[in-house]
Design brief:
InterPro entries: Invertase/methylesterase_inhib, Pectinesterase_inhib_dom. By secondary structure, the chain is mainly alpha-helical. The protein is built from eight helices and no strands. The chain is elongated and about 50 Å long.
């Protein structure tokens, strides 16, 4: 009996080690498909859920971390907003607070819900919108309607963190989409339509993206 228990324990340990190896490979494989492998690895390895997650679960984890970071940014912005007596700074911080409020209450929770419902193209759209909130906050410090509003942003690092996490989430969602024009190609077209700086190509990708959005719902 004792030998059987030892054998069972050894089998359990080997199975766990194998599972951990498979999950580690999942993280490595997923991150190697992204544009910032180092950020991807450090982000996913910081969350214990990654050890048992599939590719879709990894995207969910990155979205959760993005939401937490956006909430942290909102708290810092609101704290500074409550202390400042500078009217121009208060105007800019109000914009940032509104943008991050929208990102944390509506946009990112919606992205998570869409991901869970397999509406991947819709999820990437929401993720991109959340990045837009961080970008708007950052640009508000240099593109204000009044000269006195323009100043160095005190939240550049925080805004960039949300931007980079949002892009990472987008790329992971694309990475686990099935191959084919109506699936992976569909998501990539939707994303390119948001990022391509060329007006001609942007128009093409936007049209392609809208068609693909409809087709993706049928996959």
């Amino acid at each position: 009996m004792a030998s059987l228990k030892v054998a069972d324990l050894v089998l359990l340990i080997v199975s766990l080690l194998f599972l951990m190896s498979v999950r580690a490979d999942m993280i490595d494989d997923t991150c190697n498909r992204t544009s910032d492998t180092e950020l991807c690895l450090s982000t996913l390895r910081s969350d214990p859920r990654s050890s048992t997650a599939d590719a879709k679960g990894l995207a969910h984890i990155v979205l959760d971390i993005t939401l937490k970071k956006a909430k942290d940014n909102l708290a810092q912005i609101d704290q500074l907003l409550s202390r400042t007596t500078d009217p121009a700074l208060k105007d800019v911080l109000t914009i940032c607070s509104q943008e991050y409020g929208n990102a944390t209450v509506v946009i990112l929770p919606r992205a998570i819900k869409k991901l869970e419902s397999k509406f991947d193209a819709e999820a990437t759209g929401n993720v991109e919108d959340s990045a837009g909130c961080a970008k708007t906050c950052e640009e508000s410090f240099s593109d204000g309607p009044r000269p006195e509003q323009n100043r160095p942003s005190p939240f550049t690092d925080q805004n960039n963190a949300v931007l980079h996490l949002a892009r990472l989430a987008e790329e992971i969602i694309v990475s686990f989409a099935p191959d084919g024009f109506f699936s992976k190609g569909c998501l990539e077209a939707v994303i390119r339509s948001r990022h391509d700086p060329s007006k001609v190509l942007a128009i093409f990708f936007i049209l392609h993206g809208y068609i693909c959005k409809l087709q993706c719902l049928l996959v």
